[in-house]
Each structure stands twice: as structure tokens, then as C-alpha cells.
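task queued by scheduler; priority normal; single chain, no ligands, no partner chains; default sampling; output format set to C-alpha cells
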Amino acid sequence: MDVPPPPEATPGTPGNAGPPAVPGLPASAAAPGNAPPGAVPAVSASAAAPDVPALDLPALVDHHCHGVLREGPEERGAFEALLTEADAPPAPGTSYFDTQLGFAVRRWCAPALGLPAHAPPEAYLARRRALGTAEVTRRLLRAAGIGAFLVDTGLPGPLLGPEELAAAGDGQAREVVRLETLAERAAATADSADAFLGALDEALAQAARTAVAFKSVAAYRHGLHLAPAPPAPAELWPAADRWLSGGDRARLTDPVLLRHLLWSAARTGLPLQLHTGFGDPDLRLHHADPALLTDFLRAVRPTGCRVVLLHGYPYHRTAGYLAAAYPHVYADVGLALSHTGARAEAVLAEMLELTPFGKLLFSTDAYGLPELYLVGSRLFRDALGRVLGTAVAEGAWSPADAPRVAALIASGNARRLYRLGREG
């Protein structure tokens, strides 16, 4: 996500049962008060998913997410705009509720607000208004079972900051700093290339002291088909001059300066998150294929920088390959699971084909709506339960390995990569 916009799951029935419960993965307690720390509370009997093997996971680490709105949205159109990557209202006669994500919101969020699963959109929105934004946010975030939020603070708008988000969700928060935003702030007051580059270096150094990672949206601003090497001074200073003298200082698109940002971040030693795959219409999808990063990944490896390929879909298998081929590359399941809804199991299974289990990370990429945190976490848990349950039932995985790998993807890998320490 670069600039913010201005399923119907049917309960299982006998004869249509999903994979058996995973041996070694105890079911979470059914009653809300008996759930283990970090488990998603069972908000009502109607919200149960009887076909899904339950995972007794630690509190999730959402390693890439955004703030939610401080107020609202009150109107249906404004709410629907946050259910899609589109930049315009739905086509006449259609609704963004009639999508996998829209169905998932009605399935999983309605019970958390005291409504039956699959409540109609108007009933859901009316209940949301009656409860108020703060209470809706508190309920949905706490039902998500997320213990740590790593928040990309680069998007504008009336959003909760990391600490406010963590307080609402009863978790902890750390900041992920967006590189392009740093550069645009430095450029806003710079009167020369020297002043701009000096201010940018200082801002990067300061951010590296407190952030857990840097993030780039170069895929939106230019595309991932960047020259792999760091720019030489003979390229860098003229590029800075061109941007300051004739470009839009509020939006960095120059490929030379984008390369400078990536390499500057790589040298700090912090992980570098890169948007890949689908997003809003501001990008060209084929320019966001993570395969385009291959030469950069080879070139940056000697720095020790660990690169995280965010989202990936529909190139998620390519991201998995890159994580398998390069020790310093990691992959992410965020955003795609929410938008694929009832098909999330298939997408996660494809991610697990090649991605090393110690290098796959959970995230929601939630923005604007707290619903996206609950939907993202719930679909992740259920998809993981089904995929691992099938693997154990078929004898491909041992009952001991399944819960160990589940905990790595849910929390352990992110805690290790971002040096968050052990839970609690």
C-alpha cells in the first residue's frame, strides 16, 4: 500500500468435514474466559468453525501493519472503500462487501460485535455505529490474538499511532520506518542536493536507533526493475538536483534516489521490507514481481541485510523460491490471505511449498479498519490449521513438527528476525 484511498463461509456439516484435528496441536478452550494467552476468543457458538483443526498458538506477531482510523467510517461507501485495493467506488450494481474479504468481515467480525455470523452489511454497520469507533477497535483488535504490532508509520491520515494501536489491542508495538517518507520529509526544506542528502543521512541514522525495520514502496514509485548496484556519486547528486528543482517533492519516484534509499537502509543492519505483488492501482503489477529483485538480492547479500518480501501475491511462489534460494531473504503471507478469504488455505499451502519454514512470517497489512486485523489473523489460523492438519493426517508431517512450525510462522520467526526477544 502506498497512498490510502480518499467468505460466505458455511459452517461445516456431517459429510463435509475438513481435515482431522492435528495431533499434538491442542484445541483452544471453547469458552472466552478459558482461552490460552494469545488465542482468539470464542465470541459465540455461532462463530465456531467446526471443520478447522484448532491451533494452540502463541500470541501472533504482526510484522507488517498500519494504523486504524481514529473515528468512523460512518457511511457504507467509506467503509467499503477500505475493503478493496481499488481507488474508486464499486461498479454500478455491485458492492465491495461481495468479495472474499467482505464475506470474511461478516463471518468473523460480526460475532465479535455481538451479531450472528454473516450478519447483513447494513446490520453490521449499524451495530458498528452504535458501539462507537473506540469500542469496535478494542473488541476487534483483542479478538485477533496479536501480541506485537510492527507498524509502518509512513501513511498519512487520522490514524492511531503504534502505541495507541498496541493499547487498544492489549499488545506491544514497534515502528517500521518507510524510506520514501523519510526522503520526502528531508526534501521538503532542503535548498540543495548537499543539504537534502545530508538531512536524509541524519534521518536514516536517527530512525535506525529506534525502528525495528525499514520498508520501501519502490514497487509503487518506479517498479522493482531497478539497477542492482548502489548509485555512484556521479549519479546521485544530479538525481537529487533534478528532484529538488523540478520534481514533486511530496512523492519520490526517481530510480536513482530509490536505489540510494535501499542501499542506505541495507547498511544499517536492520531488516528491509519490500512491497511486492498486488496492491492498489498506483502500481503496475508486472513491475512488482519479486523476481525482478534477483540481482539486487545477490548484490546486497554481503552487507548482511535481511530482506523481507511482503505480500507477493500472485507471485507468492516466486517469493518462496527466493527465500529458499537466498539465506538472507524472507517471505510474508500478509494481505493475500485476507483478500483470498475462503481460498486462503490454498494460498498458504502454495507459500509452504518452497519457503523454508523458518523464513515465513505472519502479517495482516491491516490499514484503516480494525476488522482487517481480526480477519487476517483468523484466516491465517484457520488456513494453517487445515494445511498442517492435512499434512499430519496423511503422514507427511509428524505430530511433533506441526505445532513447532506453526509457532515459528505465527511468532517465532518474526521475534528472531526483528530481535524482539521471547514472548512476555
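post-processing summary
- The CA atoms of residues 147 and 171 lie 5 Å apart.
- The first helix runs from residue 76 to 81.
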